[in-house]
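User: Here's a chain of 230 residues. Predict its fold as tokens.
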Amino acid sequence: MIYLPPFKEPLFPSVEEATEDGIVAIGGRLNTEWLIEAYSRGIFPWFNEGEPIMWWSPDPRAVMKPSEVKVHKSMNSYFNQKKYQLKIDSAFEKVIGYCSNVPREGQDGTWINSSMIDNYIKLHNKGFTHSFETWENDILVGGLYGISLGKAFFGESMFSLKTNASKFAFISMCRILEKNEFNLIDCQVHTNHIESMGCKMISRKEFLKLVTENNKKETLKGNWNELLLR
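Assistant: Prediction complete.
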């Protein structure tokens, strides 16, 4: 296990040195510079409040192409009848707040702690993190958030207060990303939910190749509601 001092500049070891569970390193700093560097290397933070910072790159990795999202028949009415409305980046802080508080099946507590929230909000203000939001009659009822680098979207978490609200946001996101020539969504680790939406598992080696190629592409920064919902 590699322990990182809180260097001013991010300095990660090779992901090849990760543990069997996928832990690359412990320590360092949690700030915007470290986060951007981590994602560009196929690494993400995941730790509970009160624990040291833990950096992960699991093998295998859960990913999908936006064009391969599975839309089950039960979801068609939500789009055809416009039961929900989509917004992007209009309530990022609310979305990450709900993701940190709304219970999810099979999870005890949350890993989205206060330092996580603060730094992803800072990344949002810099144009790197984005929220896809499901609204019903001007009320936020579901959504998800993640970080964008190049033509990849690294998903972090989602929440739902109404039936299929998070699925609506996810499907809408995939359609918009496909339209804007994104070719990778990182779902991090396997769950039955994301598998049902079209996610598949690939080796870490294959994933890192995709990330390396993606790093050569320009990042679309700013408020995506203005840039993508046109």
